[in-house]
Amino acid sequence: MPSSEILVQPLARRLGLLLLRRGSLLALLLILAVFAVSAPNFLSPGNIANVFAQSAILGILAFGLTCVVIGGGSNVVSGGLDLSLAANLGLCAAVYSSLNNAGLNAAQAIGLTLLCGLAVGALNGFTVVVLRLPPLLATLASMNLIAGLELVLTQNSVLPTDSALLDILATGEWLRVPVLAWVLLGVALLLGLLIQHSPYGLRLYAVGEYPQAARAAGLGVGRYVFSSYLIAGLCAAVAAFCSAAFFSGSTTGSGDMLLSVVAIAFLGVVFSRRLVANIPGTLLATLLLGFLINGFQLLNIASFWVNGVQGVLILLVVAMSSALRKEEGGQ
Amino acid sequence: MTSPALHLQGITKSFGATRALDGVDLRVEQGSIHGLVGENGAGKSTLIKVLAGIHRADSGTLAVDGQSFAALSPRQIEALGVHFIHQERLLPASFTVGEALFFGRELRCGPFIRRRAQDREAARLLREYFDLEFPAGALVSELDSARRQILQITRALLAKPKVLVFDEPSVSLVKREVDQLLAIIRRLRDQGLTIVYISHYLQEIQSLCDRVTVLRNGRAVAVVDPRSTSTAQIARLMVNREVGEMYPKAVVTPGEVVLELKGLSAGLAYRDIHLSLRKGEVLGLTGLVGSGAKELLKTLFGLVQPEQGSVHLQGRLTRLKSPRDAVRKGIALVPEERRSHGVAPLLSVLENLTLAGLSRFSRWGLLSSAAQVRESDRLIAELGIKTAGHDARVSQLSGGNQQKVALGKWLGKGCAVYLLDEPSVGIDIGAKVEIYRLIGRLAKQGAAVLVLSSDLPELIGISDRILVMHRGALAGEFDAREVDSDRLLACATGARELATVALECEQEPAHAFV
After folding, report:
1. Which of A127, A247, B23, B385 is least enclosed by beta carbons within 10 angstroms?
2. Do B148 and A331 count as a contact with CB atoms less than 8 A apart?
3. Closest CA to B275 of B252, B253, B258
4. Residues 245-284 of A with CB under 8 A from B
5. Distance between CA atoms of B349 and B343, rounded to whole angstroms?
6. Where are the transmembrane segments (chain A) (predicted)?
7. So where are chain A's domains?
8. Which one of B90, B113, B139 has the shortest CB-CB distance to A216?
């Protein structure tokens, strides 16, 4: 039987897919090319390594969100979403700073901070899986709760701190590449293996995309969704170390990163053949945004333009992928 | 003699006051294809859910391969080798063939999935079982529904089952795909599997099964051999014959044609439908799930756009772009999901009754509440709506009374055409009769009424003419006074008229379905 008979995709959909996938890669290359020509030093190894390092915080948060979106389904309204990621980062950074300043040893401070991130993830998992709240609302509520906790802890001020770990993260280099860049790549590699190449990842995709099918296959749907929030919480804690290194302590206003994180995670969708959230796509999207910001800085363009570009990108991607999904229709 | 592969004895199951299963026996022999047929609501799906461990039977025993159990959990029954192919295709659309086949029990190397090995193994299994090649790297979303079905069967076969239960597997398949599926099921039986096949397409049952259990009203009324029993006989066994004095029918002489469909087609749903509806006539429309009857009604609601053909309303070519558009053109819609579409449950009876014709109660954009109260009280009395008053919320009313509100809101408007989708589903007998009376009165007032219903005795009772759809085409038109449920069901299931079927079966049983 000729394979053309088996593929029942209409032409318009295939063109749309092609445009979306190739278009986004093309856009990435185009942006690089434009900046390479117009911005001095844009393509220098130092600058590129710099972009990687500066993208680490956003990227790691976006990896966490990617896992949640995979496990909860990619429907923006009813699917998986974790709006508390940025606030969780703020809280973890504050917790680490105050523990470190209180004189706990490195292992204790780091361990408790990771635990804090996990606890927030568990809270989100609990409200979504056990209380069955829509993730959008559940994590919106926990975002406010966590931001409040952070304020209580920091009295709305910056908690400066210093430790060996932060020194290494902030100034360390390996093979002339900053440690932060290695952290980004390391987390990407680990989660990439877990999500794209392990049975856990495949099952997480099944749970998110078609819970009934996963249940029929004997998978505990709730457990997988819960675990995706735990991963997100852990990512927030790891990103919190990077942030603390970057700012030499906790900062106020970590919540401002939320929009960028959501943008990156959904932008990552277009870098996959199947139009699903995925770790390599999220990494590419992180770098795309990183290069954009970096290029704007090199060209001395006001940084608020980046916000506008981000907004447009979110709109475009969400609109296009939902239109394509609609065409796919009910199974 | 070997013990039966499956043996259910005296299974009884009640939901509240209704008895869904009443002492049902089902005996499935090793290596046979056993059919299970019955009307909607006869208890097929409840029986299967009891077998699958989703429902727990009130009484009765369940034996697998000679071993008796009182009740089993879904996991236990799977461990015993009984697997289910559900009606829905339970496969994630963005998965590749290999992933969809193996997720949940992946082939792995250490902590990682062996994607290549899975794809290779998937290709090998599909070739071995079904002699099929899927394009390399194809995603589930790119496969048609028959191939998804095959993929799901393969998934079940991975667990090396002894018994496979197919629950209405052919509903969303087209003819050619059904033939393919039946051939595959026969092959599985020849490989030694025991098959339970649930369907209401009698042709499939006839050509496929070795034995058939017929369910009616929660009882197993007969176990027959389809080779010596015609589809029409099976259809007769399925039908409930009690037709009481439930149907007050006013005699009306139909007037001129109000609504006419010419050669209407919409994709795979239905094709080439010609239909005319006259003033003062009640036209019944029926068909099984997947027959296209529902989609046809949706087209008239303005929800589905036809691809070919035309709709003529009172002689004029019309396009129904949306439900709003249909209402504006004088069509009254009473959808099946009355709670979500037919009435606004949180609004009062008065508001619901006057919603459709608010312009009649308003002057210079303001509502006249006195006129609204008068009209709604009149309708409440006239329709016998049991409510605490016109201020009561509709959500507090019983299903039957909600339906009366849904119908009543159109009454004062004097619509020319009424489209009713399953008007009596989920309401009690008493309220049903009142709904039927109301339909009769609509026709008497000169409205043209189209009723879609799967309750055949009801349709015969209230309609003048009945159209039956089968797999997207009009399969027959009957005068309601001269037809009985047997013939309607035979037509809807694709069995032919009694005499011809009996004749064909004697001559060439293998070709009972064509």
Report:
1. B23
2. yes
3. B258
4. 274-276
5. 9
6. 23-42, 48-71, 105-129, 136-154, 174-195, 224-247, 253-272, 279-298, 304-324
7. 18-325
8. B90
Residues 6+ apart with CB under 8 A from A123: A142
**pLDDT bracket for residue A83 (50, 70, 90):** very high
Could you tell me the pTM of the whole model? 0.69
Hey, is the C-beta of A199 within 8 angstroms of any chain B C-beta?
yes
Which tens digits make up the pLDDT trace of A175-223? 888 999 999 999 999 999 999 999 999 999 999 988 888 887 778 889 9
Q: Which chain A residues have a beta carbon less than 8 Å from that of B135?
A: 3, 6-7
Are A202 and B94 inside 8 Å of each other by CB? no
Residues 6+ apart with CB under 8 A from B66: B3, B4
Residue B214 distance to chain A (closest CA, Å)? 28
B91/A202 CB distance under 8 A? no
Distances in Å between the Cα of A266 and the Cα atoms of A61, A62, A80, B93 are 13, 9, 12, 19
Token pair 């469909």 is found at B261
Residue of B nearest to A3 (CA): B135
Q: Once rounded to an integer, what is the mean pLDDT over residues B261-284?
A: 86
Which residues in chain B touch residue A7, judged by CB atoms under 8 angstroms apart?
135, 138, 142
The reply to whether B133 touches chain A by the CB within 8 Å rule is yes
**Closest residue of chain A to B147, computed from CA coordinates:** A6
Read off the pLDDT of each residue in B234-248 and give the average, rounded to a whole number: 62
List, in order, residues 6 or more apart from B401 with CB less than 8 Å away. Answer: B385, B386, B387, B431
Residue B305 has pLDDT above 90, yes or no: no
Q: What is the pLDDT of residues B385-433, one digit of tens each?
A: 777 777 888 877 777 778 788 877 777 677 888 888 888 776 665 677 7
The topology under which CATH files domain B255-330+416-514 is Rossmann fold (3.40.50)
* Predicted local distance difference test score (pLDDT) of residue B457: 79
> Angle CA(B429)–CA(B431)–CA(B434) in degrees, nearest 5?
115
**CA gap B415, B420 in Å, rounded:** 13
Mean per-residue pLDDT over chain A, rounded: 86
A9 to chain B, any CB pair closer than 8 A? The answer is: yes
Q: What is the CATH number of domain A18-325?
A: 1.10.3470
Whole-number Å distance between alpha carbons of B74 and B420? 39
Place A99 in a pLDDT band, splitting at 50, 70 and 90: very high
For residue range B165-210, list pLDDT tens digits in order.
Answer: 998 887 767 777 788 888 888 988 998 899 999 887 777 888 889 9
Does residue A329 sit at the B interface (CB-CB below 8 Å)?
Answer: no
* Interchain pair B142, A193: CB under 8 A: no
**How many residue pairs from chains A and B have C-beta atoms closer than 8 A?**
80
Is the predicted pLDDT of residue B244 greater than 80, yes or no?
no
What gap in Å lies between CA A303 and CA B327, rounded to an integer? 53
Q: Nearest to residue B457, comparing CAs of B46, B168, B171, B40? A: B40
Of B86, B89, B135, the CB nearest to A7: B135
Q: Does B268 touch chain A (CB under 8 A)?
A: no
* Chain A touched by B90 (CB under 8 Å): yes
Residue of B82, B96, B97, B103 for testing the chain A interface, max A β-carbons within 10 Å: B103
pLDDT at A60: 96
Query: Which positions ≥6 away from B28 have C-beta within 8 Å?
Result: B4, B5, B6, B7, B34, B163, B194, B196
The three-class DSSP label of residue B269 is coil
**A331 has a pLDDT exceeding 50:** no
Give the per-residue pLDDT at A234. 96
Which residues in chain B are classed under CATH 3.40.50.300? 255-330+416-514
Task: Give the DSSP H/E element, type plus range, for residue B264.
Answer: strand B257-266
B177 contacts chain A (CB < 8 A): no
**Confidence band for B497, pLDDT divided at 50, 70 and 90:** very low
